[in-house]
Amino acid sequence: MLLVDGKNYSDLILKGETVTLSLKYIDEETLLLINSIILRILSFYGNIFLLETLVTILREIIYNAFKANLKRIYFEKSGVPITDRERYHILMEKFKDDFLFRINEIANEIKAQEKYYINIIFKKNDDELKISIFNNVALIEEEFNRIKARIEKALQYQNLADAYNDMYDSTEGAGLGFALMIFLLRNSGIGHNNLKIQTSEKGVTVSVNVPKKLKEESIISSVKKKVLDDVDTLPTFPENIVELQRLCASKEATIELIASRISQDPSLTADVIKLSNSAGFVPGKKIMTVKDALMIIGLKNLNLILTASAAKTIMQSRYKKFEIIWEHCIRVANYSTAIAKMKQLSGIIDSAFTSGLLHDIGKIVLMSADDKVVHTISEITRDKQLRSSSILEEISVGISHADIGSLIAEKWNFPPHLKNAIENHHSPLNVNGDHRDLTFTVYLANMLAGVEKNKYSYYYIEMDVLKWIAVFVPEFMSADIDNLDDLKAFHEKLKNNYNNQMTAAG
User: Do 330 and 424 reside in the same domain of the chain?
Assistant: First the structure.
């Protein structure tokens, strides 16, 4: 199965019943089930913005419990008692190379053993949702002291980048994980005091209590201030673009007149032709002139192309980091258009390309404000296998690149549907109503492009989005979404069409 629906479990939890998931091995489907359960509960309470925070925290706790089990199996196989303090550190130096790097090879063995297990317990009362992870191994003194020291140290940091550089431990890896959890709890409004660790001879329980009333936390950082100042000083669109957009909206303006005005600006002419070809309005046919572009794409699409061109020109002239992400933006824009066409979403086909093209404008500003912080966040996102960098941006910088993009969209008076797609291209479930289709489209396009760069796994894609695409594109997969091969085939089709189009467009 590609996806697991947690509806039955979440219904029981919302009724006040205690639900326990017992497992020996952590795989993507288990994490998807947890994601589904939490999503439905948070949706019920209107706190869906906490989804990524909670999933990231629980994933970290579960993996730590799982590694504790692996460690004990490793010590048992080595014939060394884990309580042997003299040989503990020597064996731990070999643990990662000998065991963790071969995790796929020993998965079946771990599943078959009966000694070690992990319970994930969900319990809701009137005031809070309590999620506990119980691991049936007792902590040795070395482990307990280590955890205590890591938490105490994590509380001292104001910056996640500093924590990463100072605490990262490649041997046991617990340091950064605890720092990450502390930052997430503190800055999400849950509060780090709602993380509880209890140990006994029977095992270890790590609990996260999610209160109904969250404590608001405003993060002020020098990077955030620089970003906000930068956005505030962004120039408005050039007058010639504004005038052309007025002409596009006018019933009296002719294609010939508009083409003539565009042709007076060589740079704009090149952009219109290039972007029109990139959008793939007529696959296999190369647009050569402005008039050809207008005849094929129409005035409504031209208006959107002008928006994209003006944004591109300003960003390119202002930020050296622009080119780093532009290729990705072109791909996402093309995938977005293709998805909208496949689903026959006539209402968003016009906007899909522009939305995909501009979805990462906030990242350009963030990268230019502090490249070191962005690099660190990227490394943590990769090392921790997070579904996006946004959550780390929020807890370390105080604002995500998606929110920065939303601010830019507001400054440049983008229409609401475009602003929403930019703001929620990593959090599509936050959007309902008229803007959902466009946001889902850009989100899916961005995730598939990220899979190609090994930034994400197919399993990271939100279940609701996959159900959405499956219902309307039957050749993609059945509505119950049970075949990973179908998703891969759908992605391959998008990629091949894009590559062919780029070749045809030159």
Answer: yes
Report residue 41 as tokens: 């509960």
Residues 38 and 164 in one domain: yes
Same domain flag for 191 and 230: no
In a domain, 500, yes or no: yes
Q: Closest by alpha carbon to 476, among 464, 465, 488?
A: 488
Q: Is residue 216 part of a domain?
A: no
Q: Which of 358, 326, 362 is nearest to 442 (CA)?
A: 358
278 with 414, same domain: the answer is yes
Number of domains in the chain: 2
Please check whether residues 204 and 226 belong to one and the same domain: no
More confident residue, 234 or 3: 234
Short-list 34, 22, 46, CA closest to 203: 22
Separation between Cα atoms, residue 276 and residue 504, nearest integer Å:
13
Cβ-defined contacts of 400-405 (< 8 Å, 24+): 400/362, 400/426, 401/360, 401/362, 401/363, 401/365, 401/366, 402/362, 402/426, 402/427, 403/362, 404/227, 404/231, 404/361, 404/362, 404/363, 404/365, 404/366, 405/358, 405/359, 405/360, 405/361, 405/362, 405/363
Output the six-digit token pair for 276: 């029109």
First to last CA, the chain: 41
pLDDT tens-place string over residues 47-90:
888 888 888 899 889 888 888 888 888 888 888 888 887 788 77
* Amino acid in the structure at residue 59: R
CA 414 to chain centre: 23
Residues 171 and 100 in one domain: yes
| Parent domain of 270 | 222-505
Q: What is the side-by-side strand order in the sheet with 204-211?
A: 19-23, 118-124, 128-135, 204-211, 195-199
pLDDT computed for residue 99 by the predictor = 64
Widest distance between CA atoms in the chain: 87
Q: pTM of the prediction?
A: 0.81
Do 294 and 204 have their domain in common? Answer: no
- pLDDT greater than 50 at residue 479: no
Q: Taking the alpha carbons of 472, 473, 478, 483 in that order, is the dihedral positive or negative?
A: negative
